[in-house]
């Protein structure tokens, strides 16, 4: 069991990982869109995956508040929804207007995060990157209810059993769905956030050197198996093994970033990490909008890329300053 001080600690290494993940997804998608590069699309999966384990890990203290005091359940919901929904609704309206999809059935499926509940649920998947946000939102909705109804005694063991149960259910159903849905389906992937929650217990047991070894091992395995995985992507064991590999990779990388926390005593590194972390949510949500806008522009690739990164940086900075932070400042406090 982790102590209260450790529970409340801010991890600047995870700020850096969050920022790298946000820009990593955006940059991979830029080159994948412009060059149809399969490797970069494959690489983007990893950056998205980092968000899941990050969410489970950093939300641990807030979720523990729900376990400690049932009155905090509604406060948790309000805090999460005020953090994630306003900017999402703005971006959804913008991209829906671009595709003449505003107030259509597809729009409302996106609005309630239902677009990836079953395969082929959308007529047109014009906002494809928000599959991950749907997983996050359903986790926010359902997991606190688990904590609300279970007792505090041995709760971590109960969550571990639930995590194992979800993995086994996924293994059972994996042959019924294609590889894309196994990776992106809402209820197929909630266990990835559970893993981050459970990792909050285990990360102190890893030292710096074995965290390097683990992260390098899973990173190299992920890269070297790329062709094999893509060529056999619809084999049931490959589909299942691939998402497990993604989760192990993301867990090991998260542990590595926790173990480099001492470097953040340098103010400049801390400031860069904090800045990138604040930009992440807007970068993730807006980068598809800019990709659609810039795709057909007659610029050379370097100029287009520089413009793309500049737009992401400026937009995300403005978004955090004038939309996200003012809302964060008025969120309710836990009891």
What does this structure look like?
This protein is an all-alpha fold and 335 residues long. It has one domain. The chain has helices spanning 4-8, 12-35, 38-58, 60-68, 72-98, 105-111, 131-149, 155-173, 179-184, 190-202, 208-224, 226-231, 236-259, 267-294, 301-329. Helix 2 crosses helix 13 and helix 11 runs antiparallel to helix 13 (236-259). The longest helix is centred in the C-terminal third of the chain and has 29 residues, at 301-329.
Descriptive labels:
335 residues; 15 helices; 0% strand; globular
What is the strand and helix layout of this fold?
Layout lengths: L3 H5 L3 H24 L2 H21 L1 H9 L3 H27 L6 H7 L19 H19 L5 H19 L5 H6 L5 H13 L5 H17 L1 H6 L4 H24 L7 H28 L6 H29 L6
Mean pLDDT: 93
Beta-strand portion reads: under 5%
Number of beta-strand segments? 0
The tally of structural domains comes to 1
What share of residues is helical? over 70%
Q: Helix- and strand-based class? A: mainly alpha
Backbone CA Rg = 20 Å
What does the largest sheet look like? none
Oligomeric form of this entry?
single chain
The helix/strand series, from N terminus to C terminus, equals HHHHHHHHHHHHHHH
């Amino acid at each position: 069991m982790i102590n209260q001080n450790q529970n409340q600690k801010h991890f600047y290494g995870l700020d850096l990982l969050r920022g790298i993940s946000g820009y990593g997804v955006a940059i991979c998608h830029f080159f994948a869109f412009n060059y149809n590069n399969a490797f970069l699309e494959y690489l983007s999966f990893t950056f998205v995956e980092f968000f899941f384990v990050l969410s489970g890990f950093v939300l641990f203290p807030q979720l523990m508040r729900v376990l400690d005091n049932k009155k905090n359940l509604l406060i948790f919901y309000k805090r999460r929804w005020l953090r994630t929904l306003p900017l999402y609704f703005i971006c959804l309206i913008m991209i829906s207007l671009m595709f003449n999809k505003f107030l259509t059935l597809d729009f409302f499926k996106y609005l309630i995060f239902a677009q990836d509940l079953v395969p082929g649920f959308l007529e047109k998947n014009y906002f494809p990157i928000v599959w991950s946000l749907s997983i996050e939102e359903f986790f926010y909705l359902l997991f606190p209810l688990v904590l609300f109804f279970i007792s505090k005694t041995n709760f971590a063991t109960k969550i571990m059993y639930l995590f194992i149960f979800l993995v086994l259910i996924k293994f059972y159903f994996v042959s019924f769905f294609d590889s894309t849905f196994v990776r992106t389906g809402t209820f197929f992937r909630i266990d990835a956030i559970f893993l981050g929650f459970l990792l909050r217990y285990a990360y102190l047991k890893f030292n710096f050197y074995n965290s390097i070894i683990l992260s390098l091992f899973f990173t190299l395995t992920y890269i070297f198996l790329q062709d094999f995985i893509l060529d056999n992507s619809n084999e049931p064991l490959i589909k299942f093994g691939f998402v497990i590999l993604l989760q192990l990779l993301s867990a090991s990388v998260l542990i590595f970033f926790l173990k480099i926390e001492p470097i953040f005593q340098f103010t400049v590194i801390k400031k860069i990490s904090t800045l990138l972390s604040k930009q992440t949510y807007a970068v993730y949500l807006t980068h598809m909008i800019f990709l659609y806008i810039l795709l057909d522009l007659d610029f050379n690739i370097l100029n287009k890329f520089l413009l793309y990164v500049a737009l992401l940086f400026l937009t995300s900075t403005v978004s955090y300053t004038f939309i996200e932070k003012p809302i964060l400042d008025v969120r309710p406090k836990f009891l």
